[in-house]
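Entry for the shared binder. Reason: the reviewer on the internal report wants the predicted structure included alongside the sequence.
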Amino acid sequence: MFEGVFHTYNLFAEHGFDDPLGETLRLFDLASGGVLRHVDLSALEQEGNDLASIVSQRKEGVPMEYILGRAVFFGHSLLCTPDTLIPREETELLVRVAIGFIEEKLRGKPAITVIDVGTGCGNIAVALAASSPSVRVMASDISPAAIEVARANVTACGLADRISLFCGDLLVPFQVEQVGSVDLIVCNPPYIPTPSLSKLASEVIDHEPHVALDGGSYGIAIFQRLIHDAPGLLAPGGVLAFEIGAGQERLVTRLLQRTQDYEGIQHHDDGEHVRVISAAKRT
């Protein structure tokens, strides 16, 4: 979408319009059925969020989401701080895949149990719980600060009765209580190889939490642990689904195949790259 906005602005500017920004906004407002004219800009009026401050912080490379303390994910406006990774649009593919499995499983049972690993600000947990009143989500994160951000979002979205939060490493908080009973495990793990972190844009590597980015020497450290530990928690036929980096599908597929604990391995793409892999625990 943003590329379309920039392209439209440039066309108006190139054709000599006195107010190319105004023309662009007017066009997109009309095309969206008047959505833009109803946008709530109250966040810009909060203390410390004056326009000059926003511009100054952006010049320093601070992500806009951290400046405003808000991020939008799957239609939800969420609290977002430097203690959590910024939710990204590409992760919505994981949510859509997960909702597909949830809808399929709800045909055969009245309620679904989901674990969201590395919940961050709680964006995936909120999106999945909001998709159906029959979904109960247990979400974990190794960062106590991230858990507090997630708790604020869960409460604000009115989902505290169906989302439980746990501070701990990956699946460790669930190893005893949930053995063999979970329908779906989802995760957007760190998958960037450690040597590649320095190649990331400065506004990512200088501001977002490294623990949510660093996937180990080859970018697969968390994949290996998830694939090894998930079968102990999943019910027979339960699904493990997680986001991967572009080009990692062959390696991750081999990891799944080697365990012989999974069947029905599926690749889900964004139209260009495979970005989500799912597999079911053997029945």
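Summary line for the report: The mean pLDDT is 92.
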